[in-house]
Amino acid sequence: MMAYAAWDHPEPLTLASAPLPEYGSGSLADLLPTLAAGMAVPGMTASITELTPADRNCVFLIDGLGWEQLKAHPDEAPYLTALLGSSRGGTGRPITAGYPATTATSLASVGTGLPPGAHGLPGYTVRNPATGELMNQLRWQPWSDPAAWQPYPTVFQLAQDAGVHAAQVSSPHFEHTPLTKVALSGGRFHGRLTGEERMDLAAEQLAAADRSLVYTYYAELDGAGHRYGVDSDTWRGQLMHVDRLVQRLAEQLPPRSALYVTADHGMVDIPFDEQHRIDFDEDWELRAGVALLGGEGRARHVYAVPGAGNDVLTCWREVLGEQFWVASRDEAIAAGWFGPPDRFEGRVYDRIGDVVAAAYDDVLIIASEREPKESTMVGNHGSMTPTEQLVPLLEVRS
C-alpha cells in the first residue's frame, strides 16, 4: 500500500522514496478484471479483493477527479462526499492510477486491465521507435497502427466473448478515435452529447441483460482544471455538475447492479513563476545531449542523443534531484514505475525515455516553444504524488 500521508524525503530524492502505484491489488488496471471475474469471464482475476461481485457493473470515470480534490470540496459534492466511506469495497480508501498519472495511460490501463509496461501507452507523448518521432498517445498524432501499438484485447471484448452485455456510453467525438479502439473497444459504443443523456443511457444499458458491463465517461472537469485550476470557481462548478450526474445515474440503477465512480488521475495547480515552471527551451543544461523531450510537465521522458544517456542522467539529477525523482530507463522499469518488472514487455522498452523524471514538488518542466499550449496550463498531473495518483472507487449498489 502506497503511503499517502505527509512525507519526509532525502535530498536529493532517492528512487526508493517514490511511492509506487498499487499494481496487482489496487490500481486502475485491476478494476475491470476484478469486475469481470465476478461475472465469470474466463482468464480474469479479482485482484481488488475488497470488491464484491455483481451481475451488472457500471464504471463511471470522471476525468481529473482525484481523491484529494474530492475530499477537499464537500460543499460542492455532497452526494459524492457521502459515498467516500464506500470507496474500495467499503474500506473508505482510494486506489491508484498508475504511472504516469495521465489520461491516455490510465484509460488504456482501465480498458485492457494491464499496467502501462504491458499495454504500451506509457505517457502523454512518447517516442515511436519505428520512426524516431514523438507520438501523442492521447490525440494519436502522428498516426500509428493502433493494433500494432496495443495488441491486446480489451476487457470489454473478452466480456462480450463470454456472453456479457458490454457497452460504452460517451461523447460521440470519441467513437472512432484510435485511443478508444485500443483501450475501450468491445461491445457497442453509444454516443451522447450531454452528461444527463449518458447517465440515462448507461442505466438502460445496465438493464439490457442479466450480466452487463457498462462504461461511461465525463471529461469537462479535467478541462476546467487544466485551463483554470482546481482552485477555480469554474472547476468547482463542474464538480457540482458531476455530483448531480452521479446521483442521477445511481438513482436509476436496475436490480443487482454496482456502480463504481472513479477517475484517471488527480491534479495540482502550479504557480506561474520561474521557481515552479522550469523552461526546458531556455535551460541549456537540461537541453544538453537531449534529442527529444516527451511526456508532460510532471512526468518527463527524456530521449538522449546516441551515447549521451549517462551524461543526461547525471545532469538532470544534479539540476532537478531535489524536486524530481530522476531515473534511467532501466532503473524506472526495475523499480516498477510502469508495473511489475516481470510484466514489462520488450516492445515498450524504447518508448520509455533514456531518462525518466517524475515531479515530487509543485513544479513543472515546461517547454514554452515546443509545447506552447501545455506550458500555459494551470492544473497539471502525471507524477506519483498522492494528489495525482490517488483516485476514488466509490460504490453504489441496488
What does the model show?
There is one protein chain. Helix content is 30%, strand content 19%. The strands form six sheets. It has a six-stranded mixed β-sheet with strand order 6-5-7-1-8-18, sandwiched between helices. Helix 10 runs parallel beside helix 12. The longest helix has 18 residues. It is globular and about 60 Å long. The two termini are 30 Å apart. The N terminus is likely disordered.
Strand order of the largest sheet: 6-5-7-1-8-18
Largest sheet: 6 strands, mixed
How much helical structure, as a percent, in the residues?
25-40%
Q: Please state the average pLDDT score.
A: 96
Tally of strands: 18
Radius of gyration equals: 20 Å
Number of helices: 16
Q: Whole-Å distance between the termini?
A: 30 Å
Quick tags:
globular; disordered N terminus; 19% strand; 6-stranded mixed beta sheet; 398 residues; alpha/beta
Concise overview:
This protein has 16 helices and 18 strands. It is α/β, with parallel strands linked by helices. The strands form six sheets. Strands 6-5-7-1-8-18 form a six-stranded mixed beta sheet, with helices on both faces.
Describe how the helices and strands are arranged.
Blueprint lengths: L30 H8 L17 E7 L4 H5 L6 H5 L4 H4 L4 E2 L6 H10 L3 H4 L5 E3 L6 E3 L9 H4 L5 H7 L3 E6 L7 H7 L3 E4 L3 H12 L5 E7 L1 H9 L4 H18 L6 E6 L5 E2 L7 E3 L4 H4 L2 E7 L2 E6 L4 H12 L3 E5 H7 L19 E5 L4 E3 L12 E2 L5 H4 E2 L2 E4 L1
Parallel strand pairs: 1-7, 1-8, 5-6, 5-7, 10-15
Antiparallel strand pairs: 2-17, 3-4, 8-18, 9-16, 11-12, 12-14, 13-14
Helix pairs in contact: 5-9, 10-12, 11-12
